[in-house]
Amino acid sequence: MKNLKRVLVGFLAVGSLLSISTNSLAQFSSNFQGARSVGKGNAEMTAFYSNVGVAYDGESNKIFNNFGFQSGLGLSNLTELRVRYDRFNFNEGKGDGINGLTIGPKFSSESGKFAFYLPVGFNFGDGADKNWMTDPTLIFSLPLGEKVTLNLSPSYMISLEEGSGIDDGLLKLNFGFGINFGDGWVIRPEGGLHYFVSDFDGNYYNFGLGISRKLIKKG
């Protein structure tokens, strides 16, 4: 009975994610960034991997392997333009993979402890509709020492598809650390819990690792 329950949970989870992912932006991963801006003319490149799953009725099941990269370019001392690509491959060959592309500004405070990030994007791939989404995000960074920062980034992903409402959104609570290894390198272990406001009585989770390289202009 327990094994049957797990199979049913996995089936429901994959079915739900397939429906959501092919009709909206599949963005179930962490942010892998802190609140501080890179500064005018500087840049940050980040590669990352996440394990994405679903929890339902006391059971959990891995769904996606998520690979991706993002870049941030400093337009001013406190403003960045960020571009991100995600590839979501279903675990154990359960279906075709999905791609996601987002772009948007990030506005940082002078203290580097708070930022507002507004990515907009769409998914694409075999069987995926290019419906647009936005994911307004708040980023809080708390220094825990000279080389370690705690990053919290709550957000609410909203479909821009005609007929979708605010109740169709995804509440995302991501958290992680930025560990500075010197010479512009930052290791970013992050995870999160995500909740659909309607249509699915469960939650999604992710945990992963990002590696950032800051490119600082000279002179």
TrEMBL record:
Among its keywords, does the record have Signal?
yes
The record's keywords, sorted A to Z, are: Signal
| Signal peptide region | 1-26
Q: Which domain of life is it from?
A: Bacteria
Per its record, how is this protein called by name? Outer membrane protein beta-barrel domain-containing protein
